Amino acid sequence: MSVLSRHHRAPGGPRSQRRHLAQPQRQGLYRRAFFEAFRKLDPRQVVRNPVMFVVWLGTVLTFLLVLDPGLFGSSNEPGARSFNALICLTLFLTVWFANAAEAIAEGRGKAQADALRATQTQTLARRLTAGGTVESVNSPELRKGDRVVVAAGEMIPADGEVIAGVASVDESAITGESAPVLKEAGSDVASSVTGGTRVISDQLTIQITSEPGKGFIDRMIQLVEGAKRSKTPNEIALTVLLAVLTQIFLIAIATLSPIATYLGSPTPVATLIALLVALIPTTIGGLLSAIGIAGMDRVAQFNVIATSGRAVEACGDINTLVLDKTGTITLGNRLADSFISLAGRSPADVARAAWIASYFDNTPEGKSIVRLAESQLGQLDFDWPSTTGIDFSARTRMSGTDTSDGQEFRKGAVDAIKGFARSRGGSIPADLDAAFEQISRLGGTPLAVCIDSEIYGVIYLKDIIKTGIRERFDQLRRMGIRTVMLTGDNHLTASVIAAEAGVDDFIAEATPEDKIAVIQAEQSQGKLVAMTGDGTNDAPALAQANVGLAMNSGTQAAKEAANMVDLDSDPTKLIDVVTIGKQLLITRGALTTFSIANDVAKYFAILPALFINAGLAPLNVMGLATPRSALLAAMLYNALIIPALIPLALKGVKFRPLTANELLQRNLLIYGLGGLIAPFLAIKAIDSVIVRSGIL
Ligand SMILES: Nc1ncnc2c1ncn2[C@@H]1O[C@H](COP(=O)(O)OP(=O)(O)OP(=O)(O)O)[C@@H](O)[C@H]1O
Ligand SMILES: [K+]
Ligand SMILES: [Mg+2]
């Protein structure tokens, strides 16, 4: 027989950001955003953002005051018209800059969608008919359940599950990874295929799993384009808060007018509008949606596709991270290293029993056992036609081969094989426990091998902890996130790996039901749980978790159940995604703090200047030239701070692995204090430029 070697992806993968899609054409992006920002001035769009809608109304009112400075009974002082025009212009710029921020964020998503769409070429598919013949159809005509044959050089016409054949597939169109991936039927990690990828050797029979237009790539396109984008719960809460603040300031300004009149310094309407806009949280109001869109985009740049912005945000709130051992914490190619014989058997006896017990086992473990046995024993003979394979299941934790004359070859977790041998009336070799311990203490997985009631020996499956994983767990701990390793492996192996990798907790000998139970237990304590997995047996747990990251190489079931899919099939990406989610929340918090601190500072910067006539001049500590120059400087600062902060909103604030409390303190210090000081310096500077330029 031929043993196919799997092409394992470079474990861990590059940590750095890696764009799999075409870099958006910067120039085209900004040109599109420029025009889009005008289109977004449509009041039906602006009204969705209450803060900006107030500024928009202010723009219209001040424009009317340009046409007729005496409108609303305002005193028609000299120079009022040109002052109103300048205020109107700054208000307009404020709304336009906010629109531009959103348009740039959306544009980056659109560029990704275009790159994805390019992979969606129509192809001719060869569909199998009920009669077993082959007919040619266009790929959009394929329905869920159809079966197609795809040969070397042909494109896979739609998403599906391999039901026959083994072939290597070039998935670079969606993953950017140039190494071909081996696909075959009946495997948890290699049976699902994606439309738009290309078969490069051999032939596959594929059962289609998605209706036209509902495939994986279609959903990705809708998401990055923002067609399905809806505000996340946190975003809605913040929008409401900003609207309430806006209302409070509206009332404050309305009551200011009579006071000013009483003090003998009646305030013109344009001044009141400007004062209002200076006070309401325009900075965060203008950048809020760009921050959210950019978060989705950053996740996509990591080759992770999220099904909603809510999922990305939930990542930022995660308290517990549930990871499996094999492939996530360890390299995953858990390969047979050696055979240990027991009870006086010869090593060749063990190798032969292990070879037969693994012959039908398609898992990487099974294949590596066959390879090791053949390398030790050379060509072996056995009467295969009269045998049946017994598949591995996570519940029995065994697999094997039955012969027609009633012999049962089994291999599996040591306690599972002990139970099996006992059930067939056998006894347990005295040296089994020593072999079990020896392997487990190395962090390896021991598999016992038996024929019927006789345990022959132990297979040492070697697994290596990924480099750098310990540092990542340390980082997570500093963020206050608890890591739990869940494994089907025995307690001793699990404890060795857990200690070496530095996870906070571990659960060994876990069945699929245990995985759900662990997640539910955490959730019942009010914790938000993220989990990563690839197998069909992980699907229920992925669905139960608040954030479920499925591997693209995993089964369709796991991908459907998850709310995120990693195209590179690197389970440690979950750590990156949590970081991005946290960064999204922190960015929003930091800019909200900055925005509100700014508004408070602006208030104290410009209010005294307004009361110069009323004898409050001594309060004008900043020495601003005139009330008008003070107001105009404040308005210009208010408008310009939005584009100044666009890069930060899109890139996210610099992230440090700290707990929520430490981050809050840090942000209050940097963005709160910075937000209080910046307006004084900037307004003073702009004020002197205005005075020197003589525009007022
Ligand atoms: N192909 C196989 N044949 C027989 N037994 C196996 C096979 N693969 C694994 N086992 C045994 O079953 C146990 C459970 O394996 P499984 O792959 O379900 O673990 P898991 O729950 O996915 O956890 P993890 O992947 O983190 O180790 C393993 O520890 C091993 O003892
Ligand atoms: K403001
Ligand atoms: Mg597993």
Class by helix and strand content? alpha+beta
Shape: elongated
Determine the mean pLDDT: 85
* Number of helical elements: 23
The major beta sheet can be summarized as: 7 strands, mixed
Bound molecules: adenosine-5'-triphosphate, potassium ion, magnesium ion
Report the sheet-strand fraction: 15-25%
N-C termini distance: 90 Å
How many runs of DSSP E, i.e. beta strands?
A: 22
Q: Kindly report the spatial arrangement of strands forming the biggest sheet.
A: 10-22-21-20-11-18-19
Q: What is the percent of helical residues? A: 40-55%
> Rg from C-alpha positions?
33 Å
Uncertain segments are 1-24
Give the count of structural domains.
4
Tell me what the structure shows.
ATP binds at residues 361, 365, 392-399, 411. Residues 122-225 form the P-type ATPase A domain. Its main location: membrane. Residues 1-21 have a biased composition (Basic residues). It is a multi-pass membrane protein. There is one protein chain. The protein is of the alpha+beta class. It folds into four domains: 26-113 and 224-300 and 582-693, no CATH class; 124-213, Distorted Sandwich (Calcium-transporting ATPase, cytoplasmic transduction domain A), CATH 2.70.150.10; 306-324 and 469-491 and 498-578, HAD superfamily/HAD-like (Rossmann fold); 335-462, Calcium-transporting ATPase, cytoplasmic domain N (3-Layer(aba) Sandwich), CATH 3.40.1110. The chain contains 23 helices and 22 strands. It has a seven-stranded mixed sheet with strand order 10-22-21-20-11-18-19, sandwiched between helices. Strands 2-1-3-9-4-7 form a six-stranded antiparallel sheet, with no helix packed on it. Strand 21, helix 20 and strand 22 form a beta-alpha-beta unit. Helix 15 (432-441) packs parallel to helix 17 and helix 21 (573-610) packs across helix 23. The chain is elongated. The protein starts with 25 loop residues before the first helix and ends with a helix. Residues 1-24 have low confidence and may be disordered. Residues 324, 326, 535 line the site of magnesium ion (MG).
